[in-house]
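Section: Multi-chain targets

For targets with more than one molecule, the full set of components is provided together so that the structure can be written out for the assembly as a whole rather than chain by chain. Components appear in the order listed by the source. The example entry contains two components.
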Amino acid sequence: MPLNRIINDPDDVAAEALAGIVAAHPDLVITTPHARVFRAVQPVTNRVGIVTGGGSGHEPAFIGFVGPGLVDAVATGEVFASPTARAFEAAFKAADGGRGVACLYGNYAGDNMNVKMAVKLAERDGLTVKTVVANDDAASAPKDQIGKRRGVAGEVLMWKAGAALAAEGADLDAVIGVAQKAIDSTRSVGIGLSACTIPAAGKPNFTIEPGMMEVGIGHHGEPGVAVMPVKPAREMAALMLDTILPDLPFGRGEDVAVLLSGLGATPVMELYILYTHVAEILAAHGLTIRHRFVGNYFTSLEMMGASITLTRLDGELDRLIGKPARSIGLTVPGA
Amino acid sequence: MPLNRIINDPDDVAAEALAGIVAAHPDLVITTPHARVFRAVQPVTNRVGIVTGGGSGHEPAFIGFVGPGLVDAVATGEVFASPTARAFEAAFKAADGGRGVACLYGNYAGDNMNVKMAVKLAERDGLTVKTVVANDDAASAPKDQIGKRRGVAGEVLMWKAGAALAAEGADLDAVIGVAQKAIDSTRSVGIGLSACTIPAAGKPNFTIEPGMMEVGIGHHGEPGVAVMPVKPAREMAALMLDTILPDLPFGRGEDVAVLLSGLGATPVMELYILYTHVAEILAAHGLTIRHRFVGNYFTSLEMMGASITLTRLDGELDRLIGKPARSIGLTVPGA
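Its structure, encoded as tokens over all components, is:
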């Protein structure tokens, strides 16, 4: 088990962190009859409901994005483990306002399996659920195998866009369409500077040697595309953007949203040093940053490092990302 | 120098982080003619201005609390080093809206000296500046030497209260009075789980052995009151609250605000585990939590650990802390 942690029993960290979040934010997120499902305070009424879900250890994701203008209900799992099908089903019901539910989640085997099962269970009860599977991690598979790519911090902007359109009263197909467009327009890449340990496992299931960094690392320590000595921040930014800019590709004159997330144990100060270089490189590339988010949005326990997410914006995505929202993880003024 | 950092030249981290913050939040904080002074976008007009300042390495403090309903201008220093007197003076001028300036800062030798000098410089130019010196760190000196105590994360709630009263149009003496009341009603304590390294120094100026924790540690690694093996989160919470509850003291039936801050490298998940126990103990102590803030508010580079801050609330402080504010570090909805 990692030293220097603020935990009790290593088997209880997910449940205890979730309980703490609910205790700390009673104005944003409340419990439901299902112990691992949480919902926004305001119930969904006569609009499409937004659901997501995933394993714990990525805080504030996923529960921290529940709130006005964002996610309506969330299914949570143990550390780095998918929520159950029953949990997803319960989240669908908790987000049902009579006009269907959009389940916007990440491309992991367990989540795919359990969401599919949950959709069937919900449909038996007369609830319509449609899904978008995020696959924004550009380093996780070649572009011609885009369906194999994992979902990472780009999910935040997918939720934001889908939820903002749902709030405007759009129907389920339109909400699904805009969430799909958001994630199709998004690329992310991570860089790991230290490993992390699932508390209940007691030791890391991967290693990053001191002084080394891993480009393209996944949110659970999945292998990246290159391991090399730690570079200065400006070279890290260049390496990361070299992965994602040509992949979509992002072209001169386009508008983008940038989300730069710490992986858990990297200080806030360093995220802003990295941001400076991201902004410089994007400007040199002829891109205009319309929305910027820097902080801990999608973490991996105590991993050091950061991820960069870029979303290409058309007028609709630009408008939806700028709409008011309020949650633990992301607040856009006005809500 | 610590490995696994996202930095360039170790001598440039403060300047580069500040530049990144300004680049990432043009809606909140802008530059001034003084390179180390930053101010809110909206100039101060016909009300008291709120200024703070301090060393870098505590991000989002101090610059991250500039914004509507919070700090108007901030003087920043190198990592863990006081801003200069000229920087404080420039911050006073940047926050001058014709009704005087309240400088609300922490009790450190360099800050005390430079603020005093800056106040004299500003007064020569006809600007009235009054000060409140935060000394909320209960572990930093005995209660009968309260003037020797350091200011830590309690400063955030002092700024919040003073700024909210200034926004209502109160005069300088009233703003100073409420900021003094806020800090006099506040106690904080930190617990360190790992050391931190000033990048330009290249090695830690203190040590916390793996598996050990230091109760009462300061925000620059100043020695605490006890070093012991790492305890479960619930015992950490009890130890920390045993330090601050009897010190004010906080009595049954009182209302409090809680601010729980990570020290930089402790994951968000663990802060919420700690919060659960803080809430339990405060409830058992007969205290009602009226405002709660959990996150990275006042950090110490890549130190692992957390601080707990409690403020006893009368009706006025309760009202002022609940008023809208918007900044990188703290947002209260409505602004």
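Chain A has two domains: 10-184, 186-322.
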